[in-house]
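Because discrete structure vocabularies remain unfamiliar, it helps to consider an illustrative case, giving the amino acid sequence and backbone structure tokens:
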Amino acid sequence: MSDEDSRSVGEQAENTSTFTLEDTEGCDTEPSEVQQEPGAISKEFPADKYYNYEELHSRPTITPDSEIPENLLHFSHSFGYDSRRRSNLKLLDETTLMFIAGNLLVLLDVSTKQQRYLRSCSGGGIGALAVHPTREFFTVAEKGNHPIIVVYEYPSLRPCRVLRGGTKCKFSCVDFNLDGSLLASVGGAPDYRLTLWNWRQEEVMQSCKGISQEVYRVSFSPYDPERLTSSGSGHIKFWKIATTFTGLKLQGVMGHFGKTAATDIEGYVELPDGKVVSGTEWGNLLLWEGNTVRVEICQKEERNCHVGMVQPFNLEDGQLMTFGADGAVRVWDLERINTANISGTSSRFEMEPINELVVGHNVWLSSVVRSSLPDSYIWFVQDSNGAIWKLDLSFTNMAADPECLFSFHSGAIQGLDVSKKSHLMATTTLDRSVRVFDFVANRELITTRFNQGGTTLGWAPPMVNQSGGLLVTGFEDGVVRLLELYNPQRLQGAAERSPETDAQLRLRQAFKPHNAPVSAVAYDRSGEILATGSSDCTVWFFTVGEWYNPIGYIHVPGPVKALDWSPNSHSKSRLLILCHNGHVVEVYSPDPGAQESSKTFKLHNLPRRSFRFKSIKSRIKREEEVKKRQGAKEKKMKERAERFKEIREEGIVFLEEEEEEEKKDLPAICFPNPPSPVCCGFYSQPGQFWLSMGGFDAGFLYHCKLSEDQDEDPLQRQDEPFAFRHISDADDNPICSMTFSSDRQLLLCGMQSGSIRVYPLQPGDHSLTSMQAYWALNVHDNEYGHLRHVRCSLDDLFVLTAGDDGNIFCFCLLPPEELQKTLGTKTKIPSPRVGLENEALARDIEDPTAYCIETAKKKMEKDNLRREAELKEAETQRRLVELRRRFKQVLNDNQSLPEHIQLKPEELLLDRRFYEQAEKLKARKVMEVRKQMAWEQERCSIALRKLQEWSEGSLQADIITVVAIRSDHRVSTYRLPAFRWASTPNKPQIINHRNGDRESGQERRKPRADPSKDSQQTEDQCLEEVVLQPTVVAKARVKLGDRQEEKLRKAAEKAQQARAKIERRKQEWAQIYAEKPEEDYMDPEDVQAIFEAKENLGEFIKGKQLRVNAELKKKQLAALEKKIHEQQSKMNRRIVALRDSKVRLVSWMAAQAQRLQEVQRGLPAHRRQPPPTLATLLPEETLERKLQVSQATLERYRTLREQRIKCVDQGEQEEAVSLLEQLEKEMKLEEEEDKEKGEDGSSTVSAGTRYDQETQVELSELEVELQMEDEIRMLHEQNCLRQQMESSVCQFDTDLLQLYRHKLHLDSQMKLDDLQLLTLFQEMMLLKQFEKREGELQERLNVCIQEEKNISLKLEEYNELLELKRSNIAKLQERESSLQLRERRLDLEELLAEEKSIAKSLKKEIDMLIKKDKLIAFLSNGSMPSDLREASVLNRTELHRLQQLKLQLEAENIEQKDLLRQAQLQRNRLVREAKHKVTRIQELELESNELQMKKFGRLVDLEALHMLTGSRRLEELKQEKRLLEAAQAKEIRHWDVKIEEALEASTEAMKTHNELLYKLSTLYEEKMELEIKINARQKKLGRQQFQDHRRRVNQDAIQQLQELLKKQSQQAEALQKRISLLSSRGGHVLPHNCARLAPMTPLPTPTSDKSIQGASNWPELHQ
């Protein structure tokens, strides 16, 4: 709170009777879980007692003995609002709102906008708030280690109750019951404990674990005080407070979603009848009845009630109100909701809202609180997008419109900077807004919104903009905008316009250098260059002026985290680029006038140096542990020496303890993967910088140096820091941001935990040696409020912080009274530029997909190239057209020339390669077309094949008729239906299974039979290539001795012997596997014995015929039908063959007739004989021709189809004639025309011959004789042709007649077969009926047999029971004779009577069973019964023979069982031995594989290894190795002599070093004395420094001391150079009074004040 408010609260607390922390448990203690037992007597807590707020609230953490004042920073104002926090808005009275801001509780006055503040008590943050129903109290639930709940009184703001022990880490929600007597709290992870408090007595009533998920809300029922409800991540739970004899108990029942998807529930409302209405993530409402979902409620047409998360919040007057993430408030009819039921298959209930209020665009309602006035409809609403609204939900015509009371940033603060000219601050976030604040007047000046969210912000220095009103803002789409802040009231003509605000932001320029969010902007020290960095791993440079122009860009190894230009103290201007992944790049400032390339902005020749951070934290921890152990060891050594003087015998025990401690392992040196991220950094000296790392390497500040060796790849290099500073209590809390005051005497650090630290520094301390004491305060949220921005004002009077929790805090170094006297109450806003009112607005980049600068330039270059290419292409096309025209002219001129002088086409061809190239191109295109049409071609071929198969199958069902040529005989095929009886016997199936098992068995045995051929084929081939194949041996460099030659020869012989042995073993194994019988192998003797046993089973069984059943009759029926089918198929094949012969005969006769016509042309008409009648094929003879069409027919069908489609499109009406019918008519007409043409041709031929005869001239005698010879020959040929044709026709008719007769005979036989088939079918049906009846009889017989067995068993049991009873009777009788007393005897008599009655009843039952058994026989009174259906009739001889046979079979069965038992025993023994052998083989294989892996590194073929011969090359290398070892041993002896000489020289140098170091130590002691004096004088001046920062120390004394120190530093530097020169020869030279340091420790680790001061002086000595 403000200082006035803080003092008032403190005074009020002091004026009343208070409890101090000494009277109660301290806040820092760890209280145990407290549970008040019912009925236990507890001390009454006074109602008028209060805690002291000043002692209760958290305070800054200060390093002890640091003399830093506690009030170093005074809290001034909060400019933010954590709008994303759940339920972060409460109402105390009509004008006071309350919300959480980090570690502060803000009380905001709505009317005056004044703020009051309460700090958290634990310092770990605030978890939840709750207001008492009377609004006289409110609770603050803390976060931290064992947090507390503080109950404040309102409006006095005095803490009246402190509740301890509710949870371990944090409270997530709290709530009062309806009368305010109880308080419920729920903790967060890891315990999630639900606790009921009697808060007035500070006691726990009941506590239990809620659920292992995050809880968002807990509340008491407004209708039943014994019910609670809690909801949260993926759950809702219903609680009942039950009263038992042991006290109160909490009983919880989880809600089951059932068919509804599980959802997070943030809000709910309980109905009067116990039902609960809750919200969902997708916007619908759920009605809970009991612990199950009764119905899901949505709008009509299954539209969601809200878009996004929905929360019901109020139930009033039969109406339910809900709000959602869509910014709307809707009212629903409660009666319809309460009676909602699922109808039909849908699981949703549809209804429409009664009223609706849309608050605004881009509004996300997350929590609401109602006005404290009675019967008020005013509600205050939390907007998660950064606002607080005031709503009138009366839904009347007079209701006020929604009013936005306050507007804040939403989400994490991405950018913050302060002006260098005034007390102004600018911020930006991803909510697409840029805001400017006056942190003296504590007000917001202006807010400007854009299309994309802001990611970084920087205020231009005065050298760039003298008025101090220029902002550089980076956005998430890669755009950088220059914004100009000015006072619009100072524009010319402002009085006429009367602007509403006194500040305005104007866009000056917008450009897009990046394709990803802009992460950093920075001006160089001269203000001439602006650098921008982005997460796209690029850094851009721009010239600064009226218009910012790009210079170029560079690529860096990772996303840019921060940019830092070298300060003015450095000689050159350089830019330090910090990358998020641990890379650091330093580049020189680019030349603004240099342009490397016109095609790209990339700067290729810009000098750079790279650094990649390598983790040293584990090594630091290891060295600290070593020093710690060394110190402990020295301490123990001293103690042991002292005790050794007293008691010498205890020395051995100490030695053993020391040895045991030395065995403990040191911390391991490890490197994080992925590397730790960079948090922040800054320049220290030229080429050196400090880094703060996150993740594993947190807890240190690392001093790094850029190496001069930059030849290594930046992505592969590893660079270690050369110094470090330990940050206390920061191993898991890295520094996220750092900034210095203007005089660099204060270092302000923003921590990841949300706290701010202030380190006082000495002037000019670049190595941070004075960074020891600090002042720290928790301000932002400790969980997610990472403090990423810390800035000081221009006069160092204000400190501003911004975190990821959306809060912005302002602190001042002076008390408020002095601050108001010094600064006043208002800040001056920059004046506008001259002529600003006449300038046009700058063009903004609103499209997030717009090209960046580099892409636009490349695209423009590409467009230029494409334009040039298009022009060239057009010119080439024009030239080609002209050449083509001229070539055609040449061709025409060539054609006009005479033929003998025309050029041939080959001569006109300039180069045949052009033609070949064109042909190749054409072939390639044809191939591409074929590839494209391959799928269609395959589809058509498959369709054709299916049609052909269908046609072939249909021909079997169609009838083909063959007609005779000269007679009326004809023969037709049978119509063959599908074969019905396709079932196969069961026996062949069994055989097939056995064959399959045999094959699978063979396959299983195959790897064993020949393992080297299948499983190891690839390995053998590899080994043959690697091991067995002879390698090409290079020319020997070393001559081998006789011994090596003999060794190689023996190795070759050994390999040959191993090869022969392996071959013999393979042959033996192959023979063994070949002789091994198969798994289903049976001994032939056993097969013969089984056959004989079946044959000699008995005359009765042998003589008995097999019974005919339905299955056997079915087989006969199938065989007969198969026989008929085969005969018909055979006849069909013969008829089809005859038809094919007729087809061949017709074609042959056509050829013969044509030949006959040719012969008759040479004969006179009177000698010509009429040709025989030609045979023709009828349509029923060639049915397959119906499906055969020509290409011309298909083309005609396509033409007809296209015509028909055109006619349909034109709307013409035609007759309904199918295309196929029209096509058949046209085909018939074409056939008739072809016949007419043939007849016309023949008549033309005959007319021609007659014409030739009439026009013939007179011939000579020789010619007449020759003509007669030709005529005779032609007559003979004519007769032969006619005879051949006649004989062929007669032969065909004879064959057809013979086939016709055979078919008639077959038809008669088929009729008989059909009759037999019918008979068999009827018999099969009768047999099925008989089998059914036989089955029933067999079941009855089985029942009788089973009943007989049961009777026999019962008879045996009763016999045994009778014997038992008889024995009992005998025992009782024996006992009766021994008894003397009468009563005892009477008892025994009664027992005997009972036993006798039981025995009598058992005897009767046995007699009945015997009679029943006898009834099984079929004889009755010596006569044969009339019904013999269930009896077998046998004569005595046959019965006697069967009885003898039964005895023989029983004996044989016993013998076979003994043999079977022995065989099974032997088989089991063999199986066990086989399993044992297999297990042993596997173990040996594993051992072999392990040995091979150990020896060879992989599995090898042992056979190939045995056959491996010796390597001559290996022996040569061994010999060469021996020679080299001898030469190197000689050289080593030579160097040993030189080393001894160098050691003697180094000994002399060490003496000189000791003398110089002694002088150095003397100077060092003098310097220490001077520093002690300086520190003493500075401590005297330190107190005044914090009170008045403008006061300075005595410059004359400091200057004298600095001159003296400079002289001593020069002397020390000269001595250090001499020491370095002497120590370069080797060895460690130290003063006589200094302990030797570890040889591998590169960095000093201070352990005391003295060592710290010494370490701080070493850099100065080096300087």
The CA atoms of residues 308 and 530 lie 43 Å apart. The mean pLDDT is 81. The chain has 26 helices and 62 strands. The two ends are 49 Å apart (CA to CA).
